[in-house]
Amino acid sequence: MTGFKNLSIVLIVFFALSPLASRAAVTFGVGNNGPALVDFNSPGMVNPQYNVNGTTVSFGALFAGQTMGAMPNEVVVTNPVGPLSLSGTGPDVATQFDLSAAGLVLGGFSQGQFYTTPIAVLFSNPVNSVSFDLGHLDHAGTTLVAAYDANGQSLGVFGNPSQGWQSLNLTESTNSNTISGISIFVPEGGMDWEGFSVDNLSFAFADGDEVIPEPGTLAIWTIIGLVGCVSFSARKLGLVRR
């Protein structure tokens, strides 16, 4: 039985150290992390995409798996399905002029009305931090900002700290690139009559971040590890002879 106990211990340690077993810690704060990389300076762009130094930043209203409610900006099913992707059936978002921001912003439109949808942002490469301007909000806590990893798993949900326009940032605190998307919405039963838009989006990568294998690659290495562990334990038990 000693060999099987050793095998169990090895497997427990293996999965405990696996990237799939770890959960990122995302912090939420006020202020921009750096100069804007996406500032929506072209009007009339619908569901735009921007290429920033090899990373594609895509905008929409919802992630696949999310569902809007009856009220504007409301999301009643907030958890996306993996892998994280923008929904192909949601309403549109577009760049437009906003008087309160005194410039072009990105907001949603539905049934002929502006600022009546959630906003989803997707990064082709996971990032360590994201910052953006959000407004114009009615009251503190009325609008939520959620971060997700590449598999659609939640990394945290946060409420806006004040009304009006504000600069917000989300940062992954373990110095790894984990944030693949953010969703901005009103929770079920909530309301923000003014609606909202975003501007001056920026993002950054962690320094010296370790490359995490894709799920398929990780599965292969998991199988190899299991075979190796079983083979090792079998030799220890004397079940395999040379």
Task: Walk me through the structure.
This protein is α+β, with helices and mostly antiparallel strands and 242 residues long. The protein has a single domain (23-207), classed as Jelly Rolls (Sandwich). It has helices at residues 2-17, 215-237; strands spanning 26-30, 49-52, 55-60, 67-68, 74-77, 92-98, 103-110, 113-114, 119-127, 129-137, 144-148, 154-159, 164-172, 179-187, 197-204. The strands form 2 sheets. Strands 2, 3, 4, 5, 9, 11, 12 and 14 form an 8-stranded mixed sheet that branches. Strands 1, 6, 7, 8, 10, 13 and 15 form a 7-stranded antiparallel sheet that branches. α1 packs antiparallel against α2 (215-237). The protein is globular, with a radius of gyration of 22 Å. Mean pLDDT is 81; it is low at 1-22 and 208-242.
Please name the defining characteristics of this protein:
38% strand; 15 strands; Jelly Rolls; disordered N terminus; 16% helix; globular
Poorly predicted regions are 1-22, 208-242
In whole angstroms, the N-to-C terminal distance is: 22 Å
Give helix % range: 10-25%
Helix segment tally: 2
CATH architecture type: Sandwich
Determine Rg (CA atoms, Å).
22 Å
Order of helices and strands: HEEEEEEEEEEEEEEEH
